[in-house]
Amino acid sequence: MVLAVTDVVGYLLLVTVNQQRVSRKRTYLMCSPEHFAVEYAINPWMDLTTPVDAELAVKQWDRLRETLLGLGHEVHPLNPEAGLPDMVFAANGAFVVDGTVYGARFKHGQRAAEAAAHRAFYESQGWRFIAPSETNEGEGDFAYLPEAHGGLILAGHGFRTELAAHAEAQEALARPVVSLRLVDPRFYHLDVALAAIDDGNIAYYPGAFSVASQRVLAQLFPDAVLADDADALAFGLNLVSDGRNVVLNSEASRLAGNLKAAGYQPVPVELTELKKGGGSVKCCVAELRR
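The structure assignment produced for this chain is given below.
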């Protein structure tokens, strides 16, 4: 089929419009890795024989925080507590939508006390806090897309968050929840397999999900950016995006290229030390949605 010149011009204009990504100022919560260490193994990435460079971990975390501030975002501190080495992974402590906080209830006892620290922060700031009855690990297994199908929560289950928590979150937050089953233990949280790259679209690694969940994602997000096995294993999908600028692990170079081709601006950061605990950019960052 031969296109007329007007058709070609129209197509190019459509592509240009579709790729004009717009950033939106975000508000985040982060917790310094002052006490970070790999002292136990509760996911496949934690290796007790691999030492953590504590000083480098703090430096890399500081660079991540400075990167977010440099992009114009606001970052609130959550005070780290001794004896909670994974508290740096602030995304796991709660899930916030439109000023309502659905609290976390951790699966593993080693992290259970983190939930109380997060609750204390939110209540001290005057947020509406809803305590969970079901096991869930906050933004580790929940992602919110306010412009997707009228406002949608994607929720993972299979390893850390119980399926019953999805219904509880829907009641707490008054948003429809789509349940997605994770099947690969290397991708034990939703946020290492899928990420919101703007308010209506996602990037994800299909192999982390059941066949049925893959079909659901393909139907809901036909324009999603897909990651390959290598970039998923490099924690490339454990990213933070403001709708234009996508802060992601520097090891995920192919995914960065795919995002750039889709009109986003990749912002690579190094988080080699925190990756030893099974986390990267998004694990360190909770979004505070008023």
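Interim note for the steering committee: The CA atoms of residues 103 and 131 lie 5 Å apart. The helical segments are 5-18, 54-70, 114-124, 163-173, 211-220, 229-233, 253-261, 272-275.
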